[in-house]
Design goal:
Alkaline Phosphatase, subunit A, 3 domains, ten-stranded mixed β-sheet, four-stranded antiparallel β-sheet, 21 strands, globular
């Protein structure tokens, strides 16, 4: 094994020395009034050392994504599933205890890659399904593209779920030099790894036949990539697991280990989740909890394999590892997750659906065992990572997120001045789960659209005092409820009209390919620019105005329809 670059090793040692001898002034108010003394000089040196001068001195970055992990299903939250690797990250890193995502898969991944709210991207209400042509607009700059242009090696290992119909949406066209994994979700944990009957396992666009348990295959590929990397450059590795998404499966030894786990979970306190649990019991179906636990344990073992590879390669100190779940645990009947004491689960915008397990470790910069209690969202990851590595993102559309790096590293207060919004229409078409929240208040709206009626149920929580959402104050604060509801309507008006919806079945007669690796239309078979659509030139602005709050015809347009219909680009 060759040694790491000399400059990288010496920079790491200087960083650690700075942190120990003179903590950053931002975290010590008594330092702010001091003039130029030894400590201030050292702070200046720290700033010089911490900001990497070139790509070779920047840290490696690994982003690991669980799929549907429950809030209570990790050891450091008191769970009854063994998660020693995640517990290690919690001990050696910082828990981001108020980390928020969207309540479903594709929107979270779109927000992670762009730093923008999925409502703008047209990937908010539903996931990208096999029969969809949707993806994320190529005008959007991806996190992987930013790392690539900073001189990083870039790789993705796992589940994509951000578009598959044409090569422009493929990971290899979105900044990832190496891609090993699946374009879709729900491909199973054992071969043939298929979706809708079509094989879905590839390496850089070429179908492969790797055999074994899917979670362990991803870990093995990630470890291989780390060991065989170009040692002259840092790497960015994105590792989105399938686990613990349904359909659940695990090696027999793990199934045996959890055969007797307690299956009586606390109520989710949401009609959608608790209702499916009740129906499952009435139908005498076995609980999904034992198999779910086995899948989580397997994922934790995979995380451990990656962490050990970093140890073996001498990279742990200089590698930033971020772990989080793409949404709350699937706590409904066949999901098996537990989000208690949070309310609700996947697909819902109660806390159990959007407040997720999240950890950040970087030993060269962060003291272990910390916790950040400030709100952070998946949209903040892109800007936060850019500041952490001392890089710039390049030209991009305006972020909805902001960097929280100083809040994480130094404990700086980072009050959020803007509301956060999330949505889901999954799984029932026409049933929307919507939320707006800030540091003090949270409004949850359940909107049921039937053929001739629409029913709106409002839940208003003073989230600063009621984090587990027990007390609905909507009736006591009608004006505040109405104001927040209007803000949600204005936000929803940003949605492209051909954005994802909850179409859980294919168009009549649609057929899947035999091999999904062959499905994306190649670049040389496509036009050079995105399609203009059907409206004649000059008419699209009028038609956009006529759509009003229904959504947008013009991409990246904030149409002030209530002020005369002018389409303003951000």
């Amino acid at each position: 094994m060759s040694d790491p670059p000399l400059g990288k090793t010496s920079v790491s040692g200087a960083r650690r020395d700075c942190i120990k001898r003179c903590p950053p002034a931002q975290s010590k108010p008594w330092l702010r009034g001091l003039k130029l003394n030894g400590c201030i000089a050292l702070v200046a040196l720290c700033a010089f050392v911490v900001a990497p001068a070139n790509a070779a001195e920047r840290p490696n970055v690994i982003v690991m994504l669980a799929d549907d992990l429950g809030w209570a299903d990790v050891g450091f939250h008191g769970g009854d599933i063994d998660t020693p690797s995640l517990d290690r990250l919690a001990t050696e890193g910082v828990e981001l205890s108020r980390f928020y995502t969207t309540p479903i898969c594709s929107p979270t991944r779109a927000a992670l890659m762009t730093g923008r709210n999925p409502i703008r991207l047209g990937v908010a209400y539903g996931v990208i399904l096999p029969w969809d042509n949707n993806g994320v607009h190529t005008d959007e700059r991806f996190l992987s593209e930013a790392f690539r242009d900073l001189g990083y090696q870039t790789a993705m290992v796992g589940k994509w779920h951000l578009g598959h119909a044409q090569q422009t949406y493929h990971p290899n066209s979105r900044g990832f030099e190496h891609f090993y994994g699946h374009l879709h979700t729900e491909v199973g944990y054992y071969p043939p790894f298929a979706n809708q009957g079509g094989k879905d396992f590839q390496r850089n666009g070429v179908s492969i036949d790797d055999q074994g348990y899917e979670t362990f295959l991803l870990a093995a590929e990630a470890v291989r990539y780390i060991r065989q990397r170009d040692r002259s450059r840092p790497f960015f590795l994105y590792l989105p697991f399938l686990a613990p998404h349904t359909p659940l499966d695990a090696p027999q030894d793990l199934q045996d280990k959890y055969a007797d786990i307690d299956t009586e979970l606390p109520p989710a306190r949401s009609s959608q989740t608790d209702g499916t649990r009740t129906i499952s019991k009435l139908l005498l179906r076995d609980s999904a909890r034992p198999l779910y636990a086995a899948v989580v344990d397997g994922m934790d073992q995979a995380v451990g394999q990656v962490l050990r590879a970093l140890d073996d390669e001498g990279l742990s100190d200089d590698t930033l590892v971020l772990f989080f779940s793409d949404n709350g645990g699937a706590a409904y009947s066949h999901g098996g997750a537990n989000n208690a004491p949070l309310r609700g689960g996947k697909g819902e915008v109660f806390e159990g659906g959007i407040r997720v397990v999240s950890l950040l470790r970087w030993p060269a910069q962060l003291q272990g065992g910390g916790k950040m209690d400030q709100i952070m969202s998946v949209m903040d990851v892109f800007p936060t990572l850019m500041e952490a590595v001392g890089g710039t993102a390049g030209e991009h559309l305006p972020w909805d997120g902001a960097s929280l790096w100083l809040a994480i590293r130094d404990g700086q207060a980072a009050p959020r001045n803007e509301d956060l919004f999330f949505a889901s229409e999954t799984p029932i078409y026409g049933h929307f789960n919507l939320t707006l929240f800030n540091e003090e208040w949270k409004l949850v709206q359940e909107i049921q659209q039937d053929q001739v009626t629409t029913t709106v149920t409002n839940h208003l929580f003073k989230i600063s005092e009621d984090p587990n959402e027990y007390n609905n104050l909507a009736a006591a604060h009608p004006d505040l409820t109405a104001d927040m509801a209007q803000r949600i309507r204005n936000w929803r008006a940003l949605y492209p009209i051909h954005g994802t919806r909850s179409h859980l079945v294919a168009p009549p007669g649609w057929r899947a390919p035999k091999d999904w690796a062959t499905y994306p239309r190649p670049l040389d078979a496509l036009q050079n620019a995105p399609a203009p659509g059907m409206p004649p030139p000059g008419v699209e602005r009028i038609l956009d105005w006529q759509h009003g709050e229904r959504g947008r015809l013009i991409y990246n347009c904030e149409s002030k329809w209530y002020l005369g219909g002018l389409c303003l680009r951000r």
